[in-house]
Specification:
Fatty_acid_desaturase, Flavocytochrome B2, Chain A, domain 1, seven-stranded mixed beta sheet, Cyt_B5-like_heme/steroid-bd, oxidoreductase activity, acting on paired donors, with oxidation of a pair of donors resulting in the reduction of molecular oxygen to two molecules of water, 7 strands, metal ion binding, Cyt_B5-like_heme/steroid_sf, binds protoporphyrin IX containing FE
Length: 137
């Protein structure tokens, strides 16, 4: 069971967060905060598939790259907040170092059409020189 932090937020481990990786039960981690996007994913302006892709994972890098206006997203994030990463947990789950580009590569495998849409938003980082990097497992 999660224990509350000093700010009254529940604290979660990656082990717990990774369980919420289903369309019917999906959490995201952004900047060490945990968000339950289960009921909200269909209303995400960027579509539910990109959220599904990161369910149970850390989406900090991709989130920052795509949503440049913190004031807009803050309004959306607030009601979805359910807790934060426990202090002893690493920023990313172990054995996973999801960069923006490798995230895009795996999305391309999943969804060609989606890759195209997202890569439009990513035009700054989506340079040919970036695309030869190693794919993630
Ligand atoms: C809880 C997490 C998230 C929240 C609250 C959120 C919120 C938003 C909001 C408010 C917009 C519209 C931006 C605007 O009007 O300027 C947006 C657009 C978008 N989001 Fe997210 N987002 C989240 C996570 C993600 C993730 C993980 C991705 C992964 C790729 C993503 C991809 C996109 C894309 C591609 C758009 C642009 C859609 C378009 O312009 O067609 N979002 N998001």
């Amino acid at each position: 069971n999660p224990s509350p932090s000093s700010q009254g937020l529940n604290m979660y481990t990656w082990q717990e967060i990774q369980r919420h990786n289903q369309e019917t039960d999906q959490w995201l981690v952004i900047n060490r905060k945990v968000y339950d996007v289960t009921g909200w994913a269909d209303r995400h302006p960027g579509g539910h598939q990109v959220l599904n892709h990161y369910a149970g994972e850390d989406a900090t890098d991709v989130f920052r790259a795509i949503h440049p206006d913190p004031d807009i997203v803050r309004l959306y994030l607030k009601p979805l907040l359910i807790g934060e990463l426990a202090p002893e947990e690493p920023n990313q789950e172990r054995n996973k170092n999801v960069s923006e580009v490798s995230g895009l590569k795996s999305m391309q495998r999943d969804e060609d059409e989606l890759y195209f849409r997202v890569s439009l938003s990513f035009s700054v980082v989506n340079q040919p020189s970036c695309l030869g990097g190693p794919a993630i497992a």
